[in-house]
């Protein structure tokens, strides 16, 4: 059993792969956090009793229980109002207006496996033996609020998942003001906090800052997890770095407004919390009703950020992504967006698809502009029927033609949106998120459909399914191109208006569940103006995400490096586009654009018919190379070697699980007259294996490659790159 309850001391010990997480029920029935880190066989009870502060231990020893203060105690799910003055994990308002509650232990349940989270995406198990779960029931005796904290410890991963459910078992209405998913009070003050921040076309840049006294937090208030902040933070202890030291990762399985909060306080405890953003959120809990908070994934690494990332990667590849495509190699695709934007017709599309097929591409994706009267971004969202001016023979015939060329057909949708200039909006003006009598702010000339409403969700499922039923489609790109404003719903009563954003997410997940279940063979890729919703919840429904609208190879180094902190390469859409690059106007070599994009799910985002023969030959070779390394990139272990945030050079590598196959890539941004012997030290190899450097007759030991490294060839000019392939010789 990975989870045990030890009656002596009232201790829960949760053992994941090489990790232990220990909780104690105190004498007064509070849930105290005791330990999270490298696996330990047991903890001395004396240590634990002294753990929550000298003053508390003294009070307990002397039996002066009233001197006990929660402010000293590392807590698992702290309340507000009873002497813990730090940020609470939850808060409810009672009918008398008070916001005080006091949760005490009531019971617990330990079982094999992991239950599903009602209506929400979560890490799953395929067999009960893969994990053990603990449910701890806490109760506030005055209000009747019951809270069930659920923990799962995974046998093969250094992962603990957590969530909280709030149930009203009292006689009065409760209003939830805050219901975070996890709270951990780490017994140390010496942390760096790492977050993945940015903007549209600059997503998930690595930002580090020392944790100082007080609160430091990141959040989204935009209705999606956002380009600006990813629902992830890592706390790196002391001088922990890429390969060394204790790192604690927290990722919320949620695509809406979130808060990740770190608070260092007077007794050198660092409180870390993650969950739905309490900002502009309340939830009415009537008698008998319950509220389920999303799941938080907690990863511990004793070998720096790199090991933490590989744990997230493996977990998400195997137990977050689902469906028939989870374990399948993903196709090399070509998308016409940057090639044509809205300006295409049937002939142009057929030509691009046919030429791309000749070069080895496996899937053609028709992007925005195929429906309604969509010749620019001001119209037609919601009118999901084909534009016969552009495609006179219909989508069906186009898709069949493309399939006959031996290449699959994929299609773009933006189903959560509506253009004011659309038949859908004219018919149902109240179907969008809005507040009566307030201006509806447009962004990209569109509004967000109100997915907190079941009728709207049903209509979306029908509109999308009608197309997927009638056209041979192998892939769907599901886009979302604006944030929420004037958040409110036409159908919710006043006291539930602040539930709209979360109700939207629940409706959205139900739509995704319905469509992906009905079309299991289709490969879905999510997108939100690039990577505005790159989060684990989306991966539960759609096993890949378009990483960014910025396709410049140099900018992509930071975006992809940052994304790799949490998300596996197989989930990261990465395409070669034309130069000068449409976002930054930079001209980079086609080889470098290829090498960067080959580190994710590879494709092209250009009009191949406009390429020279020489360029086409390069593309042909790139696709051959990618197909050779595809298994390695999509299913291998990822190691970061040089950070684009720390210098002019970036490097990363992929190693097969059995260490037999290796691909390593090096990128240099600017050229310099500074000549030097540069070597790249590899990681993650078997020191006792010998590796052949492909394309040569040179053989290197794994130990040699990791300690002396490979010599980086002289690369002339700016924006150069190099890829090595190594294979074990048996
Ligand atoms: C934003 C996406 O990120 C792009 O790739 C493209 O699909 C456009 N939307 C289409 O409007």
UniProtKB/TrEMBL annotation:
Spell out the molecular function terms from Gene Ontology.
Answer: alpha-galactosidase activity
Domain (Glycosyl hydrolase family 36 C-terminal) spans 649-726
**InterPro entries, per the entry:** Aldolase_TIM, Alpga-gal_N_sf, Alpha-glycosidase_related, GH, Glyco_hydro_27/36_CS, Glyco_hydro_36, Glyco_hydro_36_C, Glyco_hydro_36_N
Cross-referenced PROSITE patterns:
ALPHA_GALACTOSIDASE (PS00512)
GO biological process terms, semicolon-separated: carbohydrate catabolic process
Its top-level enzyme class, in one word, is: hydrolase
Give the enzyme's EC designation.
Answer: 3.2.1.22
Q: According to its UniProt record, which residues of this chain constitute the active site? A: 479 (nucleophile), 549 (proton donor)
User: What is catalysed by this protein?
Assistant: Hydrolysis of terminal, non-reducing alpha-D-galactose residues in alpha-D-galactosides, including galactose oligosaccharides, galactomannans and galactolipids
Q: Which residues form a coiled coil?
A: none
Residues that, per the record, bind substrate: 200, 367-368, 444, 477-481, 527, 549
Instruction: Using the record's annotation, list all stretches that form the Glycosyl hydrolase family 36 N-terminal domain.
Output: 29-286
The organism's superkingdom is given as Bacteria
Keyword DNA-binding belongs to the record: no
Q: Per UniProt, which keywords does this protein have?
A: Glycosidase, Hydrolase
Record-stated family = Belongs to the glycosyl hydrolase.
UniProt name for this protein = Alpha-galactosidase
Q: Which organism is it from?
A: Clostridium cellulovorans (strain ATCC 35296 / DSM 3052 / OCM 3 / 743B)
């Amino acid at each position: 059993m990975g989870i045990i309850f030890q009656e002596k001391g009232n201790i829960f010990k949760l053992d994941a792969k090489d990790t232990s997480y220990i909780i104690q029920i105190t004498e007064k029935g509070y849930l105290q956090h005791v330990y999270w880190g490298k696996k330990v066989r047991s903890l001395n009870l004396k240590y634990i009793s002294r753990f929550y502060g000298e003053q508390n231990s003294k009070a307990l020893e002397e039996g002066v229980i009233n001197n006990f203060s929660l402010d000293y105690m590392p807590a698992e799910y702290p309340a507000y109002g009873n002497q813990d003055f730090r940020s609470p994990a939850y808060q409810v308002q009672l009918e008398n207006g008070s916001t005080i509650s006091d949760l005490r232990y009531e019971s617990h349940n330990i079982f094999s496996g992991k239950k599903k989270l009602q209506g929400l995406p979560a890490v799953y198990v395929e067999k009960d033996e893969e994990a053990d779960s603990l449910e701890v029931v806490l109760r506030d005796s005055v209000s009747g609020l019951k809270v069930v904290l659920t923990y799962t410890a995974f046998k093969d991963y250094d992962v603990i998942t957590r969530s909280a459910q709030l149930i009203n078992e009292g006689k009065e209405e409760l209003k939830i003001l805050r219901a975070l998913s996890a709270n951990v009070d780490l017994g140390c003050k010496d942390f760096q906090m790492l977050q993945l921040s940015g903007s549209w076309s600059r997503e998930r840049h690595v930002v580090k800052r020392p944790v100082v006294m007080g609160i430091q937090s990141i959040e989204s208030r935009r209705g999606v997890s956002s380009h600006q902040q990813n629902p992830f933070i890592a706390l790196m202890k002391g001088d922990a770095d890429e390969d060394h030291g204790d790192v604690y990762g927290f990722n919320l399985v949620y695509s809406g407004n979130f808060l990740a909060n770190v608070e260092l306080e007077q007794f050198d405890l660092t409180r870390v919390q993650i969950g739905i953003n309490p900002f502009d959120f309340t939830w009415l809990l009537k008698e008998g009703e319950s509220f389920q908070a999303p799941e938080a994934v907690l990863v511990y690494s004793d070998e720096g950020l790199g090991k933490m990332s590989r744990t997230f990667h493996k977990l998400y590849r195997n137990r977050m992504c689902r469906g028939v495509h989870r374990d399948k190699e993903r196709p090399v695709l070509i998308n016409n967006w940057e090639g044509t934007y809205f300006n295409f017709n049937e002939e142009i599309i057929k030509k691009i698809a046919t030429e791309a097929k000749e070069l080895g591409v496996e899937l053609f994706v028709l992007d925005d502009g195929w429906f309604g009267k969509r010749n620019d971004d001001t119209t037609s969202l919601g009118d999901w029927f084909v534009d016969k001016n552009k495609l006179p023979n219909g989508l069906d015939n186009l898709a069949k033609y493309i399939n006959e060329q031996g290449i699959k057909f994929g299609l773009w949708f933006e189903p959560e949106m509506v253009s004011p200039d659309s038949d859908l909006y004219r018919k149902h003006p109240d179907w969008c998120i809005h507040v009566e009598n307030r201006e509806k702010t447009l962004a990209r000339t569109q509004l967000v459909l109100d997915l907190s409403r079941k009728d709207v969700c049903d209509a979306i499922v029908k509109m999308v399914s009608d197309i997927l039923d009638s056209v041979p489609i192998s892939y769907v790109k599901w886009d979302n191109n604006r944030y929420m404003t004037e958040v409110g719903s036409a159908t919710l009563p006043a006291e539930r208006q602040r539930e709209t954003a979360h109700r939207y997410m629940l409706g959205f997940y139900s739509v995704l569940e319905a469509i992906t279940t009905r079309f299991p063979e289709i490969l879905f890729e999510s997108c939100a103006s690039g990577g505005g919703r790159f989060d684990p919840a989306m991966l539960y429904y759609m096993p890949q995400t378009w990483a960014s609208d910025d396709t410049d190879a140099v900018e992509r180094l930071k975006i992809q490096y940052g994304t790799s902190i949490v998300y596996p390469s197989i989930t990261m859409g990465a395409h070669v586009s034309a130069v000068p690059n449409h976002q930054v106007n930079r001209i980079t070599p086609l080889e470098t654009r290829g090498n960067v994009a080959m580190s994710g799910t590879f494709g092209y985002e250009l009009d191949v018919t406009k390429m020279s023969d020489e360029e086409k030959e390069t593309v042909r070779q790139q696709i051959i190379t990618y197909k050779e390394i595809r298994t390695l990139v999509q299913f291998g272990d990822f190691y970061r070697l040089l950070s684009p945030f720390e210098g002019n050079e970036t490097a990363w590598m992929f190693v097969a699980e059995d260490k037999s196959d290796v691909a390593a890539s090096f990128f240099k941004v600017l050229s310099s007259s500074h000549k030097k012997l540069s070597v790249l030290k590899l990681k993650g190899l078997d020191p006792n294996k010998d590796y052949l450097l492909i394309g040569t007759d040179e053989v290197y030991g794994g130990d040699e490659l990791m300690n002396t490294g490979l010599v980086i060839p002289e690369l002339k000019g700016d924006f150069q790159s190099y890829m090595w392939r190594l294979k074990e010789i048996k």
